[in-house]
């Protein structure tokens, strides 16, 4: 939406751009507000009190609101990947030139502080028609746009959005050109993590699969179409107690829980996944292996508890049992009763009885199995 001019902006030609302009017109929550400044130099911005933060091009933080103000710029392809660009920012760059470098028409709209729309590429029309369409043939210069377009569809598919056929063609062209291989792991994961937090994350992976990008970036997922379909249906089958901020991590765990340990580890290493994503994926995989058993025995249940480090990290058990209840409710109920009983057994009790060292560990394991056996005996 519009904002009043303040003393820091007096005399500057400033436009609101990107997501805030798009989402306000969709009635979608506006998360971030970005601005473009036309006709200014870095020195002028700093003299006004703006703090430079841009590493690759001139971006400044407002002294009070801390919103981002970027100088209008153009880009020229100079190498591979999303970083292979020469950026030109100068007072001579126009707003229209700045908007022309953007990925999708719905992201290439601007608005004056007074609320006047600047829309040289028909973004408003595409917004109303619910179409994701590239701004120009230069779309194929940046492989990251394949992931971004898929992510935007994961966000807006529920509103009826589609990807324009010609844009899908350019996404396939980018995949076939080999440009995707030049994306650094951090950017692939950043887009993917954002997609996992969108309303329809399965759409992201389906779009990547349809244009061939999944086989390049996530080959472990693309090997078996049937397994992929099953994995994507699980993305929203999450325990009820999963908090909003944890949803992306749980969705990733559900996506990869069917993969074997070497495949999961290879993908985690390649994408440089955060530790919490790696750990939860492993725990979900161990849980899946247990509930896929027709009737797991006491030793397998005990091994599962060992595997998820339940004895030291007891907080892991309830959400994993909740996950299991979605797939094997009877087994989850048995294990919930067993866990409730076995977790009351304290090693201190055995120490008082005189057990120590290796004997303590062996007796503790024996009694835990006995308790679990009693819980499973009712099946």
Can you describe what's shown?
This protein has 379 residues and is of the alpha+beta class. It has a domain of 126 residues: Beta Polymerase, domain 2, CATH 3.30.460.10. It is 51% helix and 10% strand. The protein contains 19 helices and 11 strands. It has a 7-stranded mixed beta sheet with strand order 3-4-5-2-1-8-9. Strands 6-7 form a two-stranded antiparallel sheet. A two-stranded parallel ribbon has the order 10-11. Helix 5 crosses helix 8 and helix 13 packs antiparallel against helix 14. It starts with 12 loop residues before the first strand and ends with a helix. The relative contact order is 0.06.
- Please tally the helical runs, counting DSSP H or I stretches of 4 or more residues: 19
Mean of residue pLDDT values: 91
Total count of strands: 11
Shape by Cα distribution? elongated
Structural class determined from secondary elements: alpha+beta
Strand content: 5-15%
Looking at this protein, list some descriptive labels:
alpha+beta, Beta Polymerase, domain 2, 51% helix, elongated, CCA_bact, CCA tRNA nucleotidyltransferase activity
